[in-house]
Amino acid sequence: MLMKKIFLPIVMSLLCYQSAQAQIDKKVDDLKKSLETENKDTVAWIHSGNITIGVNEGFLHNWAAGGEIASLAINSIFSGNITYLNHGSIWSNSLNLAYGLNYAYSYSFVPRKTDDRIDFTSKFGSRLNKSTDFFYSALFNFKSQFTRGYDYTIPGWQHMPTSDFFSPAYLTLAIGMEYRKGADISLFLSPIAGREVLANAIYTSLLPQGAFGIDSGKTSKFQFGAYFSGRYKVNVKKNMTFSTRLDLYSNYLAKNTTNDAGEVVKKDNPGNIQCLWDNLFVLKAYKSLSLTFGLTVVYDNNFPYSATYIDQLTNLPVKKDQPGEGLGWAQINQVFTFGIAYKF
Known about the structure:
By secondary structure, the protein is mainly beta.
């Protein structure tokens, strides 16, 4: 009898606690789901994200069809967001990272990059009033890469890096208006946007017109212009999500670059709008397995395309051996990954 008097209240208390906790968890989940598509007057932290790691391995021996004897490819993508809501104020932070390496027997398993991106955005906005979806907003964006980059189509590429961590790096600070509908739709427009482009002088000194928009031998370049950033995310199905982003930047200060003789070595003007269009499609195939398709298209007048390179021995132009020549100055990065995915 004494045992019943002791344990019965404990069991009842645990059951009541579990029921109450389940109700609280459901309310929290419902609130987070509604905040994806609605603006609400509340105080809350919300977060979301995806991590995908894919591995592709191959081995051949005496294979009649031929091919790479042994290879290993690793791709990883991280996309995360954390947002703080305080009634009419919103502070959102998003981080997108990508890195991929390819190892092959034909080049002694020396790793070659297939992807490399760092992209962080922090934005603070204040709602005009409770009946509107427009916000006064300030935005900070940082873009760069993790490791040194090369053009593998050029002989002796090991001695001619084309980029590196913080070379280039882009720091953008903008003030403007944002149309926001929950966490899934954001359209930000700023007529007042400052951008600082940074790079090591080693890279900017290679050509008379400089590199990354920075003058030859310099380490930074200030730009001032208009900035637009639009983001949209949709759950196509329960296990399928699609997100897209479009960034546009026009530099009011853009002008032709001339050499000491007054000759134009690079044409530029505010009409050469810098463009970044990023797309990510994630399909959760089974439990922690997923298919990820990413496509990024970049246009920047500071990154011209050349179908040739200068041979270091003869000092003569040599045609590059690479596909996609007809795509011109567009920078394209396409990745398809099947691997382990974690959503939070």
